């Protein structure tokens, strides 16, 4: 077995075709963040992106996309932006992990959204976490029956607010797969305001992330595409989402809404409309991402799973990295596992956001209660 490290742009057509072949042959890899198109885009935008090409007897058995940061610290491709990572390989591939880290020139590698059960990493998994999904494999009606069974009261409330929104603000219209860049900018603006309002770091303050979304929005093949959706009341955009899809799975990425319409729970209204149109478009599931929000517990109709863990080679850098990262990761897991702790942390961050100066916030949008905002 040989391991060759390349930049994504150095992958030839044969390697790209092999990547797609391996991904499509393995259902556990059905996630757009594992697609070669995403790796190529990240490689164009960030200098630290690499791919380990794993060969055996002159045959490519797998690819390992990753980021190599200062002092040999390794991170999953896309880092905090993505919700799935791992080897794109034949299912039975087991690589000597120390040899892989040496070849990649990394001393430590943390993962929190790894495809579980991969033979190379399974010994290093410290936990396996559920990821709620909207299962559309039997169609939208079967899905909505499950939502009704999960919480008939919540569904009834959302449907009432949906009718009220249309009655008071204008007839509702849902746009699936919008190609309009202006619509994407509206969504980004809402999301930036939400980040600041809730005390989070504004991801769109980083130009490369804006460029990444622009590139993903322009993708439109049958097996990989950016999907921009928006719900309108009359002519006004109310709530939207930008995510990535494979041929069968849409992954939630950036949902947001106009806070002016918060009383109508526009995020949930949008999510149900999005699921309906996803089913009509032939998609079989919507991956909502692990943890975080209570609404996912009754919108879901199934679960996927992702693994968390850490791998390191003995070195001072790895030891320092462990001391800095492990306690934070444990605290994050504890908080996301307990809704009351999550709500408390959310309130603290929102309070921090309100205390920022107007210049820092760059927005006059009010702080609003967002139980079903979905942002």
Automatic annotation (TrEMBL):
<protein>
    <submittedName>
        <fullName>CelD/BcsL family acetyltransferase involved in cellulose biosynthesis</fullName>
    </submittedName>
</protein>
<dbReference type="InterPro" id="IPR016181">
    <property type="entry name" value="Acyl_CoA_acyltransferase"/>
</dbReference>
<feature type="domain" description="BioF2-like acetyltransferase">
    <location>
        <begin position="154"/>
        <end position="297"/>
    </location>
</feature>
<dbReference type="Pfam" id="PF13480">
    <property type="entry name" value="Acetyltransf_6"/>
</dbReference>
<feature type="region of interest" description="Disordered">
    <location>
        <begin position="355"/>
        <end position="375"/>
    </location>
</feature>
<dbReference type="InterPro" id="IPR038740">
    <property type="entry name" value="BioF2-like_GNAT_dom"/>
</dbReference>
